[in-house]
Amino acid sequence: MLTLTINGQSRDVDVPEDMPLLWVLRDHLNLVGTKYGCGVAQCGVCTVHVGGKPVRSCQLTVGDVGTRAVITIEGIGSTPNGAKVQQAWMEAAVPQCGYCQAGQIMSATALLDTNPQPDDADIDAAMAGNLCRCGTYIRIRRAIKNAAAKSA
């Protein structure tokens, strides 16, 4: 039995320590906002925050989480920057198909947590590992800039 802190709540899970965090979230805790994309940490769809850092949950084992807090897309809106990013996402009409958006929002929030006023190069670097098959990159950048402006 492992105890995880997910979105501020302590959750017990009876899973093998080598199970990817993604499957614990989706299959054992019913937190299905975090999606499966490529399975090899290349697309960013499965991004969550662990210990305040964005990580690919498809490759991080639940045993490696340890005592670090996990925040998923279901909980990111309760953080100041997460709420700003989610609002900016809606205002900029970012999602097209929406599949990658949870990972995009998680990465964008992590960026603003470390750099409240990113320029285009900062945004491009932080978001480089998040792929969008619909190509909404211009709207994503606009939303991040709008969220940052709300912080200023």
List the helices and strands and how they pair.
Blueprint: E1 2-6, E2 9-13, H1 21-28, E3 47-50, E4 53-56, H2 62-65, E5 70-71, H3 73-76, H4 80-91, H5 101-114, H6 120-127, H7 137-151
Antiparallel strand pairs: 1-2, 3-4, 3-5
Average per-residue pLDDT, rounded, comes to: 96
Spatial sequence of strands, sheet with the most strands: 4-3-5
Assign a percent range to the helix content.
40-55%
In terms of structural class, how would the helical and strand content be classed? alpha+beta
Report the end-to-end length measured between terminal Cα atoms: 44 Å
Strand and helix order: EEHEEHEHHHHH
How many H/I helices?
7
Estimate the global geometry from the Cα principal axes. Answer: globular
Radius of gyration using CA atoms only:
15 Å
Question: Which key phrases capture this entry?
Answer:
two-stranded antiparallel ribbon; three-stranded antiparallel beta sheet; globular; 152 residues; alpha+beta
Account of the protein in words:
With 152 residues, this protein is α+β, with helices and mostly antiparallel strands. The protein is built from seven helices and five strands; from the N terminus they run ββαββαβααααα. It has helices spanning 21-28, 62-65, 73-76, 80-91, 101-114, 120-127, 137-151, and strands at residues 2-6, 9-13, 47-50, 53-56, 70-71. Strands 4-3-5 form a three-stranded antiparallel sheet. Helix 4 packs across helix 5 (101-114). The longest helix is centred in the C-terminal third of the chain and has 15 residues, at 137-151. It is globular, with a radius of gyration of 15 Å.
